[in-house]
Amino acid sequence: MIPGATMSTYTTTNLADQDSVTCQVTGVCGLVGFNEVIVHVNTTGVTSVTTNGSDVRLVPNPNKGEFTIKGSLGVTTDEEVSIEITDMLGQVIYTGKAMTQNGNINEHIKLNSTLANGMYLLNLRSGSEHSVFHFVIEQ
C-alpha cells in the first residue's frame, strides 16, 4: 500500500529484476480495477562507441551533471586517462585526468550545476585508445 497515493503514475528506483508490481484501484464502493506487471530491469549506463576489449560505462544516464565513469579498459596496466566533456557545439566544458588501477577506472565527475539540459559528449583517451560516450543532463 502507498498511503495517500492519488496520482495516475507511480515512480520508484527501488525495483530489482523480476519484481512484481500490482496496482489495485479502490473507490467509494470498493474495488474498481486490478492489474499486475512483472518488471524486467536492465543495466543502466551507456557503453562505449568504440570497444577494443574495454567495458566502460557512464552511470547514471541521464544525470544532473554528477556521474561515475567505471569499468575496464581491456588492459591490466595502470594508465593515465584523459577526460574531456564537450557540449553538442563542441565547446569543452570539462577536462581532467584519472589513473586506472590494473586497467580499471572508477572516476566520479561533478560538473557545474548551471549547465543547460541536453546531450553532452564524454571523450576518454588512454594510450592509442579513444572512446566516446553520449549522456544527457536533466537538471
Structure characterization notes:
The protein is mostly beta strands. The protein is built from no helices and 10 strands. A hairpin with a 6-residue loop joins strand 4 (55-59) and strand 5. The relative contact order is 0.19.
What labels would you give this structure?
139 residues; mainly beta
Helix content: under 10%
Structural class: mainly beta
Terminal Cα span: 30 Å
What is the name of the CATH architecture of the domain at 46-137? Sandwich
Q: Strand share of the residues?
A: over 45%
CATH topology label of the domain at 46-137: Immunoglobulin-like
H-E order:
EEEEEEEEEE
Summarize the structure.
The protein is mainly β. The protein has a domain at 46-137: Immunoglobulin-like (Sandwich).
Task: Itemize the secondary structure elements and their pairings.
Blueprint: E1 20-27, E2 30-38, E3 46-47, E4 55-59, E5 66-72, E6 80-87, E7 92-99, E8 104-110, E9 118-126, E10 129-137
